[in-house]
């Protein structure tokens, strides 16, 4: 994989829309291992020779399909920021869309904590009416937890991931910070866990997975 800088040029909104093009699947997968505490991907060619590193960041809160929708003041700001990003971040990057199962981990953790507190209260309560109320609350929380598990089984959403490249680990980290800073309102990024990165890579290796950009 080459790490040539893009030519500096002025883009308009039409260029921003045109920037979304299909990605060759093979070009996304030449990774060999995870390295560093932030789990950068070491890229390698077919001979195992290093071809640099790649970072993966999740894109949060915005669906990039806004460029095909009706304009609003908010959308105009996002388009302007995206336009600025493309003109100021001159290093190579890819934005990949995958269809992922919805995650309710945070919600489940919160409700599990609530359930545990109710169980603790049940062990110490002596009033019958108070015990009955706590039992009803416990059953309600259990129902919510079952519903959250069902959501993870049946709900699918589009996950946006940006791939950032560098020839060394230090350069990749610098470019990660630069991309995050320049993204502004258009491309808000978040760090990904090792499991999340592995999940995305597994999706990309599935030939039945439809990718869009």
Describe the protein's topology.
Elements: H1 13-18, E1 31-35, E2 40-44, E3 50-60, H2 73-88, E4 93-101, H3 105-124, H4 128-154, E5 156-166, H5 169-183, E6 188-191, H6 194-205
Antiparallel strand pairs: 1-2, 2-3, 3-5, 3-6, 4-5
Describe what this molecule looks like in 3D.
This protein is α+β, with helices and mostly antiparallel strands. The protein has two domains: 27-99 and 159-210, no CATH class; 104-153. 45% of the residues lie in helices and 21% in strands. It has helices at residues 13-18, 73-88, 105-124, 128-154, 169-183, 194-205; strands spanning 31-35, 40-44, 50-60, 93-101, 156-166, 188-191. A hairpin with a 4-residue loop joins strand 1 and strand 2. Helix 3 packs antiparallel against helix 4 (128-154).
Question: In short, what is this structure?
Answer:
The chain has 213 residues and is α+β, with helices and mostly antiparallel strands. It is 45% helix and 21% strand.
> Helix/strand/pairing class, anyone?
alpha+beta
Write down how many β-strands occur, each being a DSSP E stretch of 2 or more residues: 6
Uncertain segments are: 1-27, 63-72
The span between the termini is 19 Å
Query: How many structural domains does the protein architecture include?
Result: 2
Compute the average pLDDT.
Answer: 75
Major sheet: size, sense and barrel closure?
A: 6 strands, antiparallel
Instruction: Give the proportion of residues in helices.
Output: 40-55%
Shape, please? elongated
Number of helical segments with 4 or more residues: 6
Classify the beta-strand content into a percent band.
15-25%
C-alpha-based Rg, rounded: 22 Å
| SSE pattern, N- to C-terminal | HEEEHEHHEHEH
